[in-house]
Amino acid sequence: MTSKVDEALSYEQARDELIEVVRRLEAGGTTLEESLALWERGEELAKVCRRWLEGARARLDAALAEEEAREEAQEQSE
Question: What is the model's pLDDT at position 77?
């Protein structure tokens, strides 16, 4: 479950922290417990990023649909 703090993160903040988590995991040298905690944090950050991207996609789709509707209305009035 994503915390309220995570929900307040901007896309860029979540992405940057996720990059750092991945870097630390790839570097190794952590205990199993630390690695699991990093993995779990990475999963939460990925969810935050996914929500931001899905929201952006929805806004783009809505804007494109609105523009298309405007163009169709203009064509019908001509």
Answer: 84
Q: Within a 13 Å sphere around the CA of 65, how many CA atoms are in the beta-carbon half?
A: 6
- The backbone torsions φ and ψ at residue 9, rounded to the nearest 5 degrees and listed phi first, read -70, 140
Which residues, other chains included, contact 3 with Cβ-Cβ below 8 Å and sequence gap of 6+? Answer: 44
Q: Give the domain ranges of the chain.
A: 4-77
Please report the DSSP string for 34-63 in residue order: HHHHHHHHHHHHHHHHHHHHHHHHHHHHHH
Q: Is 7 within 8 Å of 41 (Cβ atoms)?
A: no
pTM for this entry: 0.77
CATH class of the region 4-77:
mainly alpha
